[in-house]
Amino acid sequence: MIRTLSALLLVSWFVVPSWSWAIRCQGRVVSVGDKSYEVLAKCGPPSYVERRYEDRLEVSSGGLYIYDPVERRYSRPWVVEHVLIEEWTYNFGPHDLLYHLKFENGVLETIRTGPHGF
Prior knowledge:
This protein has 118 residues and is of the alpha+beta class. The protein has one domain (18-116). Helices cover 19% and strands 52% of the residues. The protein is built from two helices and nine strands. The protein has helices at residues 2-15, 36-43, and strands spanning 18-20, 22-25, 28-31, 48-59, 66-68, 73-75, 78-91, 97-104, 107-116. The strands form three sheets. Strands 1-9-8-7-4 form a five-stranded antiparallel sheet, with no helix packed on it. A two-stranded antiparallel ribbon has the order 2-3. Strands 5-6 form a two-stranded antiparallel ribbon. The two termini are 40 Å apart.
């Protein structure tokens, strides 16, 4: 049982991409929560950029309640939030890893490392 668990853990270590909370660009630290313009100033332009929009359905956070006659109760209305998703890829060469940075509305949300660059 313990051997199987440790073998599974070892395999997942090599298969699953690594998640980070910070990376170092040209001696400067970039971390989750930084703005896109800060990352651009610290790391320079990325090797590849992909932009897209996502619509997310969320419950309104305001104090407004509406009556639902079907369920016979008051509830908050749903709001569609338009989110700009940008995925930046940095390739610092064959002696360093690829870094994939995901921004939501200009704020760095996730940092993933990939294989070695080229």
